[in-house]
Design a protein that fits this description.
Helices cover about 45% and strands about 0% of the residues. It has five helices and no strands. This is Sirq protein.
């Protein structure tokens, strides 16, 4: 699944619309800096989440991983990455790291 396919699902998890290439959209790091006060008002803990710089380039290319070695070790289950991310985001919400 490519980031182009994943991104609308990720946005949907947070109740957001995925932008359609608007050149005026702020990069995540600038958006987080601009709206840090909103995050604080919502009780989000002041931590690495506020920095957001790693998100500026995260979706620019797909990350394909070779599972050959782990398959040889006996791990053969298939994990739905979107379900896995949802589970992780739920834990971040419980920890007060992202907006509920």
């Amino acid at each position: 699944m490519s980031m182009k396919e994943k991104w609308p699902v990720l946005a949907g998890y947070f109740g957001l619309e995925s932008p359609s290439g608007d050149p005026n959209v702020l990069p995540p790091s600038e958006y987080v800096k601009k709206h840090t006060h909103v995050l604080r008002e919502l009780g989000i803990k002041d931590n690495a989440v506020f920095q957001g710089g790693f998100l500026d380039t995260y979706g620019l290319f797909d990350r394909h991983m070779n599972l050959e070695k782990i398959r040889k070790a006996g791990f053969d289950e298939e994990v739905d990455s979107m379900a896995s991310w949802s589970k992780a985001f739920d834990k971040f919400k419980e920890a007060g790291m992202i907006i509920r």
